[in-house]
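hey all, quick one before standup. I had two proteins in the batch that finished overnight and I want to keep them in one place so we stop losing track of which output belongs to which input. First protein below, input sequence then C-alpha cells straight from the run.
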Amino acid sequence: MPSADSLRVWLAATRPRTLPAAVAPVLVGTALAWHDGRWIPAAALGCLAFALLVQIATNFANDYYDFVKGADTAERVGPRRAVASGLIAPGIMRRAMFITFTAAFAAGLGLLPYGGWPLLVIGIASILSGVAYTGGPYPLGYNGLGDVFVFLFFGLVAVGATYFVQAGMPGSEVWLAGSAIGLLAANILVTNNLRDADTDVRAGKRTTVVRFGRAFGRAQFALSHAFALLVPVVLLGWGASGWILLPCVLAPVAWTQTRRVYREISPAQLIVLLGQSGRYVALYALLFAVGVVLDR
C-alpha cells in the first residue's frame, strides 16, 4: 500500500493548480447545453473525467520530458518536479503518463454513444497533443506553440465538445465562451513561462515569452483578461439577460492580477500569481455558468 508521503508526491505531480483549466470548460459547456434544454448528466461527467485525466497525464508527460530535455534543473524556482528532484524514477513517471492517457481514452470511448466518431477524432487529437506538448520530435511547448495548444484544447475544443455531446452542433455563443475560457487557461501558462524564462532559455525551450520577450507575455496576459470580461457584454448585446454579466464582477481581480504581472517579476511572486490565475479561470467559469443558467 502506498505511503502517505508517496501519495503526496503523486498528488503534487498532478499539479493541482492547473486542474481548474480542465474543469472550467466542461462547466461552461454544460451550462450552455442546459440553457438550450439538452443537459445530459452522464455525458457531462464523462467530459469532466476525460478532461481531468488528459490534464493530469499531460502534467506527468511534462514532468518526464522536461527532465529528459534538461528544462527542469536545480536552478529552477517553483514547486518541485517529481522526476527532476528524484522523488519518482523517470521510467515510473513514463508508465504513469501512458496509464493515465489510456484511462482518458477509455473515458472518451464512453462518450461515443453521445457524439459518434467526431469525438474519437477529438479524443485522439487531444491525447496526441498532450504528449506532443513537451515530447516528440517537435514539442509544442518548446517551440512557442504551448499557448495555442491550451487555447484550442482547453478552450474551443473542450467547451465545444462538452456542448456537442449534450446539445448538438455549437453556435457562435459557445465558440465565444470557449475563446474566453481558452485565453484565461493560457494565462496560467503565461505566468508559468514568465517565471521560468531564464531557465527555459538555457534549456532551449522557446516559449512565447522566450521568443518574444516578457513584455509580450504581460501584454498577452492583460489582453486575455480584457477579452474574457468583454465576452459577457457581447452576449448581452446578442440578447442575453443581465445575469450574463455576472463574470464582470471579477474585473477588479483581473485588474489586480494584471498589475501584479507587470510589477511583480520575481519567480516567487509569480508562483503565487500562478495559483491565483488557476482559481480565477475556475471562478470565471462558475459565474459564467450561473449567469447562463439564470438567463434561461
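OK second protein, same deal, sequence then C-alpha cells:
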Amino acid sequence: MSLWKQIRRIFECVLLLVGLVCIPLLPRCCVLGLARVLGDLVRWGGWSLRLVARANLDVAFGATRTDAVKDAILRQAYRHFGLVLLDLFWFAVFTRRRLERLVTFDESIRHYHAASPGLIVTGHYGNWEIMGQASALLGEPIVSVATPLKNPLAEKLMAMFRRRTGQEIERRAGAGKAMLKVLRRGGRMAVLLDQNTLPHEGGVFVQFFGLPVPASRAAATLARHTDAAILLSHSVVERGGRYRIFVQPPLRMAEATDAAVTQEIVTRLEGLIREFPEQWLWMYKRWKYVPDGVAISGYPFYARSESSEDE
C-alpha cells in the first residue's frame, strides 16, 4: 500500500472516530443543519462528482427541467446524502429509541411486508441504511447484502451500525448461497439493485430513463428459485428529518423472464426518482456502460462501451 493511501486511511479513521463520539450528542436540529453544510462543502469541493451528477440529471430529464431546477435538485441531493452519512453516526446511540421516534411505517407495510419469503429490493434512494435497522422494530430483522468498504476500520464501524438492531449482513461476493438459504427457510433478504452489473457478472441491460443500463438479475433469479415475493421498499426523508418507510405491492411475475422482472423493478425505481429526484444518489456513474452495438450519443461524458470492461 502506498504512503498516501496509508495516510488517507488514518485520516478517515480519525474522522470516523470523531464522528462516532460527537455526532450522536447533537440535537436533531443540529444534525439537519450540519447535513446541509456538509452537503454544500462536498458539492463544491468534489468537482468531478459534481460533473457526473449534473450529467446524470441531463440524461434523466433533458430539456424537461430547466438548468435552475437541475441545480436545485443537485444541491438538495448533496444535502440529502449528507444527512444519510451523518445519520449513520447519530442513530448509533440510543438507536431503538431514536428509530421509534423518527421512523414511521406507512400503511402499506401492514398489507405487504408480511409476505414470506420476502425479497426486499431497494436502491440508493432515500435512506437505505435506516431501512435495515428499522426492520427490527417490526420484530423481523432482515439479512442484507453489502459490499465491504476498503478501509478496515470503516468496514467494522459500518457492520456495527448495521447490526445494532439485529440486522444480519452478508458480503456481496458469493452471497448467492446465503440468500437462497434465507429465502428457502421463509426469511427476508434485502438487496440494493441500482448498481452497474454487466451481463458477464449476472446482469442484463434494461431501460432506465430511456437508455439501456446494466442491472443485476439477482432478484428475478432468486424469486424464481424460491417463490419469494419481490418487495420494492424504500425509506424517504420527510420534514424535520423524519423517515417514512413504505413498500410497493409485491411483484410476482412467475411466467416472466428475468429480464422482464428486472425491467419492472428498474421502472418502478425510476418512477420514485421522478417523484422525489433529490433523494437519489446522482453522483453514481449509473450510465457508465453502453451495450455493444448501441450508439453512445445521448449517454453522459463518462460512458464507455460494454466491451471496454474486458480490455
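Flagging for whoever picks this up: The chain has a mean pLDDT of 85. The longest strand covers residues 229-238.
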